[in-house]
Amino acid sequence: MRNLGEVVIRVGLRGIVDGVTRRFWRIVLHHSQIRVRVTVSAVLATLVLAAVACALLLVATRRNVVGDVQAELGREARRVVTVVRSGELRDRSRIFASDGDLLQVVDARGRVVGSSPAMDGRPAVAFPPPPRGDDRREGHSCDLDVPGGGCLLVVEYRVDMPSGPFYVFALAPEPALLPRPVAAVLAILGVPFLGALAGYGTWVAVGRTLRPVAAIRRELDEITMTDLERRVPVPGKRDEIALLAESVNATLDRLEKAVARQRAFVSDVSHELRSPLTGLRMELELAMSDPEATDLTETLRALLANTDRVAAVADDLLALARLEADGQFPREPVDLAELADQEVLRRPRRSRVTVFSEGPAAVHGGRSELARALTNLLDNADRHATGEVTVVVRTEAEAAVVEVIDDGPGIAPADRERVFERFTRLAQGRHRDAGGTGLGLAISRDIAEAHGGTLVLTDRTDGRPGARFVLRLPGPRPDERSPR
Predict the structure, then answer these.
(1) Residue 270 is part of which domain span?
(2) What is the Cα–Cα distance from 140 to 153, expressed in whole angstroms?
(3) What is the side-by-side strand order in the sheet with 152-161?
(4) Are 455 and 351 part of one and the same domain?
(5) Residues 6+ away with beta carbon under 8 Å from 422
(6) Strand ranges for 73-131 from DSSP E
(7) Which is more confident, 99 or 474?
(8) Does one domain contain both 166 and 185?
(9) Whole-number pLDDT of residue 123
(10) 440 with 299, same domain?
């Protein structure tokens, strides 16, 4: 019976766990909300823990009851042992006991020499004697012929007498699987109660925790390209959700700036392209209005100049788009000193250009991109120089440096960052910058940053007027250096 009860408990617990698990996965598959998943997980964990605790409580309760019964049987058996040792027990003697007590004394030949009223006429109890060196044995048996039948708890004592050993048995019905039904029912009912309590508490707690997330989601749903200045609410508590809200707002800040920059860029592009296109249209309209009076050579030269300007803007825009798209381009070992010489000699310029180098200045980067950056710097210096441009190539600690210096009027410190903005032309230099697109310096800085370097504008070191652009690029790592 006891083994059957334990099997029933195990099967019942397994059924509860399997049923709850199947229900759990059914809910998770049909409801993906975090609140539902967390609540169901908490309920499942609580039910499993509560079921295990309930089973342990029932098992411990039954063990306590069994222990109490065995202790009472031990007291009754020791009382009979005292009678046996006093020599007052005779063959088939009646042992004084309360109604229903099951007591029996058997001699070494298996004859019943004494019993309680409830055991009168019963055969000797067939139970193993205590082990050698011990005078007591306890256990249970379901094969004894006793009133009421069923399984019994047995406490046995061996009494050594001159005539031989005697065996005293005290028996009692084995307690039921749930010896305290009221406590057992309360414990079993407590399992779903605790599960429901845990589910309710988790549902409320997660709802309060996720309430700021819902507010953030609603605000994000309402933000469009026309109102990027809006921001999501940041909870007062400094927790993960507050950090998430701050990250979202920081992302919106960057997005707003990027959109504003994009809009300004589109506006500037429209303006820059409108001028040469308007010139092209005007030249064509003049030629068509009076073909006989038009100087074809001058008209074609004007058309070619405006076409070159449109092509230059288009080339610069394409370079910017490629850099902003992924900034990935083929890289190889490049000697900046050699590259500077090539770019200076590639085409004639208005000013005299001189290159000074202390030797090879190697970097690992895109040859065409670095050539474009140097060309932009040289063209800018040539447009603003009075008559001389100097290029200095040198190496520093783990870096290569290129300085492009002109002897022009220079740029005020307050405007030195503005020149790297797209389509920016300073008022005092516009008449000298008619050949530029306003994108060259911005492209050069983007190329420098794509290589992990910097491009800045500073004063000349000799104190003379002019501008000094310093391009600093990191040198190649050991695995990027070309073999000698």
Answers:
(1) 224-325
(2) 4
(3) 93-94, 112-115, 102-107, 164-173, 152-161, 136-141
(4) yes
(5) 264, 265, 268, 320, 438, 439, 442
(6) 93-94, 102-107, 112-115
(7) 474
(8) no
(9) 86
(10) no
Residue 13 domain-assigned? Answer: yes
- 370, 339 Cβ separation under 8 angstroms: yes
385: nearest Cα among 470, 471, 466, 469: 466
Q: How confident is the model at residue 219 (pLDDT cuts 50, 70, 90)?
A: confident
Instruction: Say if residues 437 and 312 touch (Cβ distance below 8 Å).
Output: yes
Is the residue at 243 inside a domain?
Answer: yes
- Cα separation, 243 vs 249, in Å, equals 10
Least confident of 79-93, 179-193, 348-362: 79-93
Task: Verify that 235 and 169 share a domain, yes or no.
Answer: no
Q: Is residue 72 part of a domain?
A: no
Reported pTM: 0.48
Question: Of the spans 201-205, 225-229, 269-273, 419-423, which averages the highest pLDDT?
Answer: 201-205
pLDDT range class, residue 391, cuts 50, 70, 90: very high
Q: Can you tell me the distance from the alpha carbon of 60 to that of 342, in angstroms, rounded to the nearest whole number?
A: 92
User: Using CA atoms, how far apart are residues 472 and 395, in angstroms rounded to an integer?
Assistant: 9
User: What's the structural domain count of the chain?
Assistant: 4
